[in-house]
Amino acid sequence: MQVLILSERLHSVTALFDLLKGIRFQEAINRATPRRKPRQLVKSNSVDVSANNPSEIREPGELPTEPLRVQQQLLDDETRALQVELTGLLDAVQETETKMVEMSALNHLMSTHILKQAQQIELLYEEAVEATNNVEMGNKELSQAIQRNSSSRTFLLLFLFVLTFSILFLDWYS
Questions:
Q1: For every residue of the chain, which 3-state class applies, written as one string?
Q2: Where is the composition biased (Polar residues) (predicted)?
Q3: Are 11 and 107 in contact (CB under 8 A)?
Q4: What is the pLDDT of residues 120-140, one digit of tens each?
Q5: Which residues contact 58 (CB under 8 A, 6 or more apart)?
Q6: pLDDT one-digit tens code per residue, 48-73
Q7: Whole-angstrom distance between the N-terminal and C-terminal Cα of the chain?
C-alpha cells in the first residue's frame, strides 16, 4: 500500500515539475528572443526616389553620392544576411522548444503509465499473497484429511482384528 502512495506522490510531483519546467522554459525564451519589428520598406523607397531625382544641385565641396550609395548597399546586404541568420536561429529555437514540449509530454505520459503499472503490481502482489495463504490453508486441510484417513484406517484394522479374535475365541469356546 505504501508503494501505491509513493507512486501517486511521485506522479503528482512529476506533473508539477513538468509544468514548472515548461513555464521556466517559456520565460527563458521570452527573455532571450527580442520582439520582431515589422520590416520598413519606406527606407528603400526613399533611396530610389533620391536616385531618380536628377535635379539635385551639387555643391563644389560636396562628396559624390556614388560611394555612399555603395556603402548603403553593403549595409543593406549585411542587414539582410543578419536577418536571414537570425530567422534561421529563431526557427531552430522554436523547433527546439517544440521538441522540449513534446519530451515533457512524453515524460508525463511515461510517469502516468508507470503509476498505472505500480498499481497493477500492487494488485498482483496482494493477489499473490492471498494465493499463497490459500495454498497454505489447502495444505493444512490435506494433511488433516490424510491424518483422519490414517486414524480411521487404524481404527478399522483394530476393529477387524478384535472381531476376528472374538470369533476365534467363540469358536474355541463352543
A1: CHHHHHHHHHHHHHHHHHHHHHHHHHHHHHHHCCCCCCCCCHHHHHHHHHHHCCCCCCCCCCCCHHHHHHHHHHHHHHHHHHHHHHHHHHHHHHHHHHHHHHHHHHHHHHHHHHHHHHHHHHHHHHHHHHHHHHHHHHHHHHHHHHHHHHHHHHHHHHHHHHHHHHHHHHHHHC
A2: 42-55
A3: no
A4: 999 999 999 999 999 999 999
A5: 64
A6: 444 444 444 545 555 557 888 888 88
A7: 79
